[in-house]
């Protein structure tokens, strides 16, 4: 089965020990969480600060990347930046501020990928780009994306549930230049769909297709 013409690969991957203890330090994979949007469809409240089980949506999304062992993890803030920053202040993440967030998601991708160059001399081979309004993604899904990358399944990989493309998406560093050059609200989707090295990674995680746009999307757990 295919989505958008992309092949679907499934774990276990060759060389994958099926470990659930986090990703290896080789290759070096960073996390970029896009959390700068205005929550226009959610109402007066910032959806990233709404809570699920007492935890802010954005913190839960950031914690997924941390728990998966990604390092560094960049959280891109914009709208109500100080409040979003406070929501993740106890996590081992680096904040990148996107003052141009109203111009579309691509500006947050640019800020997040750009911030990776400011994280010191550690080698970063790829980045997992995730969305701050998708708090239901399982950390093991992120680990599976990295395992697929390690096994050379592709250089641009998106999580997929029941054959349908979702988020997050992993990009090899060779795409970083193109990611900072995109504009509007496209993010990295065009790169994923146009690259000959792209694939979907099958995961048993409906969270990759579940975002928070309206209060009802929180599932009643606040």
From TrEMBL:
Residues 1-27 are annotated as: Disordered. Pfam families: NTP_transf_3. GO terms for molecular function: nucleotidyltransferase activity. InterPro entries: MobA-like_NTP_Trfase, Nucleotide-diphossugar_trans. Keywords: Transferase. Residues 14-23 have a biased composition (Acidic residues). It comes from the Archaea. Residues 31-194 form the MobA-like NTP transferase domain. This is NTP transferase domain-containing protein. It comes from Halorubrum laminariae.
């Amino acid at each position: 089965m295919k989505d958008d013409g992309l092949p679907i690969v499934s774990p276990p991957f060759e060389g994958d020990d099926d470990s659930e203890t986090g990703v290896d330090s080789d290759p070096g994979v960073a996390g970029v969480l896009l959390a700068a949007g205005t929550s226009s469809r959610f109402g007066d409240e910032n959806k990233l600060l709404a809570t699920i089980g007492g935890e802010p949506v954005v913190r839960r999304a950031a914690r997924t990347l941390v728990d998966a062992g990604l390092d560094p993890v960049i959280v891109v803030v914009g709208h109500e930046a100080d409040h979003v920053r406070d929501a993740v202040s106890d996590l081992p993440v680096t904040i990148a501020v996107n003052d141009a967030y109203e111009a579309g998601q691509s500006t947050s991708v640019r800020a997040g990928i750009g911030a990776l160059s400011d994280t010191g001399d550690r080698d970063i081979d790829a980045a997992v780009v995730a969305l701050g309004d998708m708090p239901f993604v399982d950390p093991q899904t992120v680990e599976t994306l990295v395992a697929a990358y390690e096994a050379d399944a592709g250089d641009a990989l998106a999580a997929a549930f029941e054959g349908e493309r979702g988020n997050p998406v992993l990009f090899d560093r060779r795409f970083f230049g193109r990611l900072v050059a995109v504009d509007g609200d496209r993010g990295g989707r065009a790169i994923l769909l146009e690259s000959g090295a792209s694939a979907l990674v099958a995961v048993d995680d409906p969270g990759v297709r579940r975002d928070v746009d309206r209060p009802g999307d929180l599932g009643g757990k606040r």
